[in-house]
Each structure stands twice: as structure tokens, then as C-alpha cells.
Amino acid sequence: MSSNQHYSFFQSVEKSFDKAAKFTKWDLGLLEQIKACNSVYQMRFPVKLDNGNIEVIEAYRVQHSQHKSPCKGGIRFSDEVNQDEVMALASLMTYKCAIVNVPFGGGKGGIKINPRNYSTYELEKITRRYTAELVKKNFIGPGIDVPAPDYGTGPREMAWIVDTYASLKPGEIDAAGCVTGKPVTQGGVRGRTEATGLGVFFGIREVCNMPDVMQKLGLKVGLQGKTVVVQGLGNVGYHSAKFFREGGAKVVALAEFEGAIYCEEGLNEDEVFQHRKKTGSILNFPGAKNLAKNTDALELACDILIPAALENVINGDNAPNVKAKIIGEAANGPCTPEADEIFSKNGILCVPDMYLNAGGVTVSYFEWLKNLSHVRYGRMEKRFTENLNTHILGQIEELTGKRVDDIERKFIMHGPDEQDLVHSGLEETMIAATREIMDIWKENPSIPDMRTAAYVSAINKVATSYVELGIFP
Questions:
Q1: What digits encode the pLDDT tens for the residues 357-378?
Q2: Which of 19, 72, 96, 108 is catalytic?
Q3: Residue 108 is a catalytic residue
């Protein structure tokens, strides 16, 4: 594919799908069904603004696949929302959920507005009306389609959605499960905020623990001492940097849209974040060197590069200059198909976004389960575990006549609370998915890159579901 060919977002997802489909054994008709968006709901509704004017709002909800119910995917508020983008994002959700073994079909929603141009009251009216439109057509519900936050939305909007849904469906016992990403007081789950960044860390850590992969890249096994560059200091970039630093790696550069900073000794993401809050920029951070352009950070010599900001930041033009050995796609679509081809040639391992940033949807799944079970994680077993561990520790100390020091004692006695269980479930999910993808790649060395191997994993799981449901012979 040459860089002057222009594909719509949905077409480029289909292109990646077709590239991977060649490495599977499925019938063409079945592959066509998996690729297609099952339902596309485009709506227009009027909202009265604070100044008395009426504005007609354009909005979408796409359900890409019902091989598993419910469908799952965020709602974004953005000027850029259009049907092609929502369809592409919905299909990526199907593949993402399949790879990380979260039993949902893919969905996505969008409202074509710039949230900055509206008052809180206007945004509330738009969100509630959108929810009512979804209810009317049976496009939302704990067993039908479960939205979540995305660009321009957060816990506040999710609270409005669940409140509107519950008021239109009185007595529905599982109403809280109609949407995830809610505030904790409204049935949300602890550990959601850092989930995507933590998932990125678990995925890359697992890759770094694979001796054969590290040998090919000429790196030592493990994260210890590896140099990391993070582009983007939003929620995902901030938490990725934090977990890499705490996990023994060294974050040598951080980039934001105003510029980038480099420090060989390593940076502390929180200190940089506070500096930016105070001065309005990450530049001129004490002890760090400013880089001329923010994109220069992408071309620094490092072991691991984490693009956690925008799409298409690494393309056919700058990919030849990338010196990192491993690229972890924390953002959605930061590397173009041309960049993938260049990485393959240059022996760079690109760990693909469609599974690496699945921490958000994984923890959304845990939130949905919590809503359906009507009990928070840890409530039933926390004390039991603590009492049992205390007893075991007491017995060991008595038998050995030695006393365990206070820090270790606290660690051993600790019973898991909700956040511990959510983090541990996420760790298990990311490790299992990484191994599955790598096994597929090992079994078929003609697969060109890890992204294609991830697609193969997704296609196999979705196709198996369709066949087992008896939809395809």
C-alpha cells in the first residue's frame, strides 16, 4: 500500500482483517459475516439550548456483532463523529473483546458535537435524549448493548445514561448494568481509571518476559532497566509511565503537544504532570532537556516506545527513523499500515493497540459482572482471607520461633479489596492474551507481524462462536 492511497477508517480495518483472514481456514461467507456491521442506527433529535434556540443533533450507535451478547463499546462526543468512524470503532471492539476473552460483541456510539461548546445542562439534555432514543429502539440494556465512556465523555455522562435508562425501565433489577464507566457510588468499579495504562504495562511486561522474543530483539529478558519513551501524558500515558517506572524500567522522555523533554536518569511522571499544571507546559522541567519538536521523542533511541496520544503519529515518513526495539500502541491506531511494513523490515516488534489497550474494556466487563451480581468484589471473602492468613502466620511464627517483619506481615495478612481483585483479573487477562497471540505467530511464522497474529486470534474466536451457535454449518 503506497502512502498516496486513501482508505476510510472502516476500509483500513477491513484491509487488516483481510490480511489476517488468509491465515485462517474459515469459509468466505463466514468471514464476510464477521466483517459486516449488523446494525447501524443513525438518528437526529432536537434539543433546546440555554439561549432558547433549537439545535438538531446528529448521533449514531452501531452494533457490529452479536456472536456474543451484549454488544459493548464507548460513546464519543466529537465534531469528527461520522458513520464510517463509528462503524470502524465498533468492529475493532468485536476483535478486541475476542482477543482478551471478554464475552461481548462490538458496538460503538457517537454524538457529533464539540462538548466544549455546550453548558453542563445542555450536555445533560443531549445525553439523556440520546439515551431515550436508544431505549426506544432497543439499542441499550444490560443484555443488549452496554455503552461506556470514550473521547469527550466520562463518569458524569454515564451517570446520566444509567439514570435515564432506569427511569424508562422501572423495576429492572439489572438497570445499573446498562452502561459501564460509572462513578463508584453509582455502581462503578474501583480500578477503572488506571485500567488502560495498567493493561499496557502488563502486556509489554509479558512480551519482555519471553526469552525467544527478547533474543530476537537483542534485549535482556525482563523490564528491569529498560528505557521507555511515552508520548502523551493523558490518563493512559500518565498511568503507563507510572507503572513502567514502578516496574523497574526507566522513563527517559515524555512528550505532549507543546513539546517533549528528555532526561537520561529517568523522569517521574507525577512531578512532570505537576510542573505542567503549574506552568502550562512540560517544557523547562528541572534537570531535563527540551526537544525541538514533540515528534522528536518518537525517534529517540530507547528500548520501548509508548505512543499514547493520537492516531497515525508514526507513518511511512517517520517510521524509518524509529529506533525503539518495541512499540506498545497505547493509543488507538498510532501506527499506519505503511509503518507496520517498515517495522517488520527493520526487526521492530509493534505490540498492537487492539489488544494492548483493552484494559478499559476488560475492567468494564468486571464492572458489568459486579452490577449483575449486585455485590462489590471482595465483600464476601476479604475478612475470611485476612483471618485465615493471620492464623497461618501465627502458626508459622510459633513453630519457627521467629517473627516476620511488619512490612511483610502486612503484605501476607492483607485480604484483597475490590481494586486488588480488579488489577489481578486484568493481569491474568493481558498475560493470557499475549501468550495466545504469540503462540499463533510461532505456529505460523509466515504471519508478518503481531497485529496480524492478533487479528487471526480474533477471527478464529468469533468464527468458532458463529459455528457453535449453528448460524453457519
A1: 999 999 999 999 999 999 999 9
A2: 108
A3: yes
